[in-house]
Every structure is written in structure tokens, then in C-alpha cells.
């Protein structure tokens, strides 16, 4: 009869940022193995448990034994099983020998391709849960998403952290399993500080409740998270908590019995930029800062304790003292940094190596200034402000604050620039030049910020590609995939009227330490275009739509979406499929006979069908030229519609490959003119299913 299976691994403290994913991976691997072994019923349910010192899963309706298995062993094809004299072929003899059967036991079966083969079948009693469990646990542990496992003591075993306890129960019974050098028991451990005695689990179903009642442990991750979220909301008392779901998950992974508490710090610290205080509280202490509705940081914070006490004042006092020391450090760094203007820090950048073959960060800044000036002028930004921001944008890298909190680079540059008397425009460009830093991150707020952000990413891409640092597989130490997506978002969402080829070319011209070859530029262009495909797919465009605009991807990125929306609207017109098919047909003809295409003259084409097509083509060409000048791609594609019938008649009534080479060449030239006209917005042939 089916019962509940409980598996628990008691460990030392697991990585808090990975605990949730470790739990999910472990549970899914166990479930998958049980399902493949036919050991769980269709209506089963399961619960995952994850605390700082344990991974566990409880699965209901687990069978004690597999059903009887019918095994089929397949041998050689029946056509190859016997020799011409009727004797068994070597392949058949080998199959019978390895299967320990005689020729009388052979039956005809079908292989995966539906072909008849000789084989034999037999029934086998299913294995018990106890027999299979060791392999299931071993497989689940081996599949955990961890780059490097640990070893401990003289143990030959590897795991995320040292394992000190193993609980495996089936209903009320302990399963006879040994793993990690430990024998499975029904005894687990409670809270590290609040429970000093072992807890004996009476039934697998009672695991979570007994831990809660006897051990001061809330084993379910989501239950702890809910308690924390509700406690934070309650103690915020109308203020806004600063902290995302990642921080809540991390804190949930650090506690077994959460208690949310409130603390305060001295208002004098509020003279330090709020970003510094927030990062210090979140990163070092795992606290939740509080803001008012105007996003002004308040001298209060929330924290999550792992201890239950009637009087938490000592816990609060201790945390306030620790935070005071942290914030005092931040205040000291900030006040010290303000004494040195950004412009005076530039010489120190000469001592900071960017990439060995690309020189120092100071040399990188020189390239950024040149490239930023070109981009700023091209997009009608304030070139002087943009280049000033470019000159100062890396100066905060050698400040004490950024040395302590690298995440604040750019942010501190803004504050230091304002302190030095630079304009808000320059300060914001310095802060924004790292944007977008991740998916869904905001874009720069000003044109000057756009110019510098685009230059920063292009300089990295061109320089690192030139010195051979091209991402391979999952290795991308310099974040070039992220930089490529940044270029794409800045170009498309920022509506910057710049060609990708042009940007790469001008960026390459700023380098003197390395030579940027044409091949390197082409590789980089294709690298960015590959990222563009993924970006457009996430925007909801189809494969055919995306492929249709790729011939223009190395041009102006700001026009890509306009082209895509136009091709989508065009595809909904009744004539679109016929024109798409004609486009593809013309392309194939031209590909095979490109050497015979004459100049644009059509003076030998006198057939009425040809004259009708030439006349229609001239009218369409004039209208399309005007629409393309206005970048009205919808209208340009609509102007192609009148060509539908003349092209249809031309293909049906005219022999394109005429014997006369002059006529043949001019007909191919006419098709080439039509093809080039059709390709001005997108490759409409991609719409031909």
C-alpha cells in the first residue's frame, strides 16, 4: 500500500543565495527518478523543505515496489538473422549467447523504426523502493546546480556542504539506506540555539509539524518567507521597504525561526548618499532600509532575527551597534573622497590596467572621449557635456567608497561631480553610462548619457574582440553579451539614428594599441546580430519576421522595429503571400543566372505583358522612393501591391530564359530591379511559408 516517503539531508550551513534553487533541483530530481521507476501514483503530491541546514522532501502516495516489468530484448533484423544455408548468422548467435536463450525462444518484435527484428521477452518482478532508493538519492545529489562540491574529513563523498545526518522514512519505518557514510535514521535536529535535543520523527507525514512544535524550525521555505514578508510589512508602518525579492529569499535562507525586528540609526548618517547607506545595510547586514513616499531614506531599518525571545531589545541594540560601525565607515569614505576632485584622480587611472593588451583605464578614457564626441554630435547631444562626462566617468573607480562598494561606480561619480561644481547634465551622464546594466534596467535619462553609455559598451566590445577575448560557450568574463544587448537597447529603444556598422567602424578608429581588422568587425557585427535575434524574439516577433529584417541589422537599429511592424502589417494583406512567393522565385532565378544580368536597359522588351510590368514598376518605384525617404515603411510595402498581377502575368506568359542573350539579359535585369525594390523594407520572401 502506498505511503509517504521522507528524505532529509542534515548539513552545515548551505549557501543562502542558492538554497531555494538547490531545494527545487533536489526535489525535482527525486520526483523524476521515482516517476521513471513507476514508484509514485498519478495523484501523488509532494512538499519541499529547505532551511539553512537541511534539504528535504516528503512525497505522498509512493509505492513500496515497482509493478511487474515486461522486458523486451531486441536482436538483429530478421533479414540479417540467418545465412543462406539456413544457419544462424554471427549477429544472431551473439545475441542468443549474450541473452542466454536458444533459437526456440526467439520471437519477432518491432524496433523503434517499425522494422521486424528477432528478440525475446520475459517478465521480471519489480524492484522494491528500498533497493532503488540509494541510486535515487545519489543521482539527485549529483545533479545539484553547484559548480564545485566540498569534501570533509577523510570522507570520499562530495556535497555542497558537509552532511551530518540522514533521515529516510517510509511511513513509520526507517528505510535501510546508507549514504555519505551515514545510516538513515528517524532522528533529526531542530533549531541550532533553541533546541538542544534530537527529534524523533514518528511518521513521514508528521515531519514538518514535529520540527515546528518540538524543534523551533519552520521547515517550509515559502512559509518562512510569508512570515517574514508579513512581519516586514507590519513593522514598516506606512513607510516603504527598500529590498527586492532576492533579499527576502536570502534572509529566508538564513533563518529557521524568523522574528522581524525594527532598529534605528543616527540621522547624521543621512548626509551620506542614500545609495551608500542602503547598500551597506543590505549587502553587509541583510537589513531592510525604509523610505518615505518621496523616496527619502529614513533613520530606521528592519531586520530578521533567527532567535525567539520575549524581550528582543538586546538583539536590536547589538545590531544597531554593528550598523553604526558600518555606516561610520561609509561616512568616512565619503567625506575623504570629497576632498579630492575627480579631475585630480585622472592621473591615477594610468596605474590601473584595463586589459593588458589594451592599456590602462586612462587610455580607455581617451578612447571613450573620442567616440562619445562622435556619437553626441551625431544624435544632436551637447558634445562638450558628453565628452566632459566621458573624461570623468571612470575617476570614481579609485575612490575609497567604490573600493568598498564596487556596485556604486557611476553613482558615486555623479555625487562627486556635483560636489566639484559640474552640471546636473554631466553628473547624470556619469551615473547613467553603465546603463542598462541588466535585463529591464532603465536607460540613460539624457542624450549625453546615451552617447556615453553607447560609447562605453562599444569600446569594450571592439577592444576585447580585437585582442581575442570573444565569449565561448557559457564563458563571458567581460560581460560582452550583456554589453551587446546594451548596444541593441540603446539603439532601438533610444531611437538613435546611427548605423551599427558605422558605430563599430568609428570605435575601431580610436584604438592605437591593437589593430581592428575587417574580420574582427564582421565577427562583432554578427555577434551583436545574434543577440538582436533573441531580443526581438522576446518582443513577440516570429522567426520569419525577424529573419526578414536581418539584412538591415547592421544598419540603423532604430529602424528595426518600424520595419518589423511594417512587415507584420504587410503579411496580413491578401496579396502578401503571392508577392512573397514571387520574391523567393525571383531570388532563385537571379542566383542561378546572376552572370547574365545586363544593365538596367529594357529597350528590347516589347511584349505587352512586359510593357505593362515595366510601366507599373516605374510608378511603384517613384512612390516607394518617396515613402522610403519619409521612412514610412508601411506605405512603402503597400505600394508593392499593384505589382502582384503584372508579375503573375509575366511569369505565366513570358519565357524569361529566352534564346536571345540580349532579351534574356534584359528580362533578368527587370527581375533584378523588381527584387531590389521588394527588398527595401525587408526580405518579404521570408513570409513565403
Detailed description of the structure:
- With 689 residues, this protein is α+β, with helices and mostly antiparallel strands.
- The chain has 5 domains: 3-66 and 128-215; 69-124, no CATH class; 221-338, no CATH class; 354-540, Hypothetical protein af1432 (Orthogonal Bundle), CATH 1.10.3210; 568-687, Isoleucyl-tRNA Synthetase, Domain 1 (Orthogonal Bundle).
- The longest helix has 26 residues, at 313-338.
- The model has no long low-confidence stretch (mean pLDDT 91).
Features:
689 residues, alpha+beta, 5 domains, 5-stranded antiparallel sheet
Secondary structure elements and pairings:
Blueprint lengths: L2 E9 L7 H18 L9 E6 L2 E9 L6 E9 L12 H10 L7 E4 L5 E9 L4 H14 L20 E8 L2 E2 L3 E2 L2 E2 L3 E2 L10 E2 L6 H9 L5 H16 L3 E2 L3 H8 L6 E6 L9 H12 L2 E4 L5 E9 L7 H26 L14 E3 L3 E2 H18 L4 H10 L7 H5 L6 H9 L4 H9 L14 H20 L13 H14 L6 H10 L8 H21 L4 H7 L10 H12 L4 H17 L15 H22 L3 H6 L5 H10 L7 H18 L11
Helix pairs in contact: 1-3, 5-6, 7-8, 9-10, 9-14, 10-13, 10-14, 12-13, 13-14, 14-15, 14-16, 14-17, 15-17, 18-19, 20-24, 21-23
The N- to C-terminal Cα distance equals: 55 Å
Number of domains: 5
CATH class of the largest domain reads: Mainly Alpha
Q: How are the strands of the biggest sheet laid out side by side? A: 2-3-1-7-8
The tally of strands reads 18
The CATH topology name of the largest domain reads Hypothetical protein af1432
Proportion in helices: 40-55%
Amino acid at each position: 500500500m502506498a505511503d509517504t516517503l521522507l528524505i532529509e539531508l542534515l548539513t552545515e550551513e548551505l549557501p543562502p543565495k542558492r538554497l531555494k534553487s538547490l531545494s527545487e533541483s533536489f526535489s525535482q530530481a527525486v520526483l523524476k527518478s521515482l516517476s521513471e521507476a513507476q514508484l509514485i501514483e498519478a495523484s501523488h503530491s509532494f512538499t519541499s523543505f529547505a532551511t539553512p541546514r537541511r534539504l528535504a522532501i516528503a512525497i505522498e502516495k509512493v509505492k513500496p515496489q515497482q509493478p511487474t516489468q515486461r522486458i523486451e530484448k531486441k536482436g538483429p533484423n530478421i533479414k540479417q538473422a540467418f545465412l543462406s544455408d539456413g544457419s544462424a548468422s554471427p549477429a544472431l548467435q551473439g545475441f542468443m549467447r549474450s541473452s542466454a536463450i536458444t533459437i526456440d525462444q526467439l520471437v519477432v518484435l518491432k524496433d523503434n523504426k517499425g522494422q521486424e527484428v528477432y528478440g525475446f521477452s520475459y517478465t521480471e518482478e519489480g524492484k522494491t523502493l528500498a533497493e532503488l532508493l540509494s541510486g535515487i538519492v545519489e543521482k539527485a545529489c549529483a545533479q545539484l546546480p553547484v559548480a564545485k562540491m566540498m569534501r570533509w574529513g577523510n570522507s570520499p563523498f562530495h556535497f555542497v556542504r558537509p552532511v551530518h545526518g540522514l533521515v529516510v522514512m517510509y511511513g513509520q519505518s526507517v528505510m535501510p539506506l546508507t549514504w555519505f557514510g551515514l545510516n538513515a535514521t528517524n532522528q533529526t535536529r531542530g533549531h541550532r540555539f533553541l533546541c538542544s535535543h534530537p527529534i524523533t520523527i514518528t511518521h513521514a507525514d508528521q515531519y514538518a509539524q514535529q520540527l515546528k512544535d518540538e524543534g523551533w524550525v519552520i521547515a517550509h521555505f515559502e512559509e518562512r518567507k510569508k512570515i517574514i514578508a508579513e512581519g516586514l510589512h507590519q513593522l514598516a508602518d506606512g513607510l516603504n521597504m527598500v529590498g527586492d525579492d532576492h533579499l527576502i529569499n536570502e534572509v529566508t535562507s538564513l533563518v529557521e525561526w524568523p522574528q522581524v525586528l525594527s532598529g534605528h540609526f543616527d540621522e547624521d548618517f543621512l548626509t551620506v548618499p542614500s545609495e551608500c547607506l542602503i547598500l551597506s545595510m543590505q549587502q553587509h547586514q541583510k537589513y531592510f532600509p525604509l523610505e518615505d513616499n518621496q523616496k527619502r531614506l529614513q533613520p530606521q531599518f528592519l531586520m530578521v532575527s533567527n532567535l525567539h525571545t520575549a524581550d528582543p531589545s538586546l538583539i536590536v541594540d547589538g545590531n544597531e551597534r554593528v550598523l553604526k560601525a558600518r555606516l561610520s565607515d561609509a561616512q568616512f569614505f565619503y567625506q575623504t573622497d570629497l576632498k579630492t576632485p575627480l579631475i585630480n584622480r585622472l592621473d591615477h587611472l594610468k596605474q590601473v590596467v584595463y586589459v593588458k593588451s589594451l592599456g590602462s583605464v586612462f587610455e580607455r578614457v581617451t578612447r571613450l572621449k573620442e567616440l562619445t564626441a562622435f556619437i553626441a554630435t551625431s544624435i544632436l547631444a551637447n558634445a562638450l557635456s558628453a565628452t566632459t562626462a566621458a573624461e570623468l566617468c571612470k575617476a570614481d573607480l579609485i575612490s575609497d567608497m567604490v573600493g568598498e562598494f564596487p556596485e556604486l561606480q557611476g553613482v558615486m561619480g555623479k555625487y562627486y561631480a556635483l560636489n566639484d561644481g559640474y552640471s546636473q547634465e554631466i553628473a547624470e551622464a556619469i551615473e547613467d553610462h553603465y546603463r542598462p546594466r541588466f535585463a529591464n534596467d532603465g536607460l540613460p535619462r539624457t542624450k549625453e548619457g546615451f552617447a556615453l553609455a553607447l560609447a562605453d559598451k562599444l569600446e569594450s566590445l571592439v577592444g576585447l574582440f580585437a585582442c581575442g577575448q570573444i565569449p565561448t560557450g557559457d564563458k563571458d568574463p567581460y560581460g560582452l553579451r550583456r554589453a551587446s544587448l546594451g548596444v541593441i537597447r540603446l539603439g532601438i529603444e533610444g531611437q538613435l539614428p546611427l548605423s551599427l556598422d558605422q558605430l563599430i567602424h568609428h570605435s575601431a578608429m580610436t584604438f592605437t594599441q591593437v589593430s581592428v581588422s575587417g574580420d574582427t568587425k564582421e565577427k562583432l557585427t554578427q555577434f551583436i546580430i545574434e543577440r538582436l535575434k533573441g531580443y526581438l524574439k522576446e518582443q513577440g516577433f516570429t522567426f520569419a519576421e525577424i529573419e526578414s529584417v536581418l539584412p538591415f541589422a547592421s544598419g540603423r537599429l532604430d529602424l528595426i522595429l518600424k520595419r518589423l511592424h511594417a512587415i507584420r502589417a504587410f503579411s496580413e494583406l491578401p496579396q502578401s503571400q503571392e508577392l512573397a512567393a514571387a520574391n523567393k522565385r525571383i531570388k532563385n532565378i537571379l542566383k542561378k543566372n546572376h552572370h547574365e544580368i545586363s544593365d538596367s536597359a529594357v529597350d528590347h522588351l516589347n511584349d505587352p505583358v512586359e510593357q505593362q510590368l515595366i510601366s507599373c514598376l516605374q510608378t511603384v518605384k517613384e512612390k516607394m522612393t518617396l515613402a522610403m525617404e519619409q521612412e514610412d515603411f508601411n506605405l512603402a510595402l503597400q505600394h508593392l501591391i499593384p505589382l502582384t498581377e503584372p508579375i503573375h502575368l509575366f511569369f505565366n506568359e513570358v519565357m524569361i530564359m529566352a534564346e536571345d542573350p540580349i532579351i534574356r539579359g534584359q528580362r533578368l535585369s527587370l527581375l533584378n530591379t523588381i527584387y531590389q525594390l521588394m527588398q527595401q523594407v525587408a526580405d518579404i520572401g521570408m513570409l513565403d511559408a
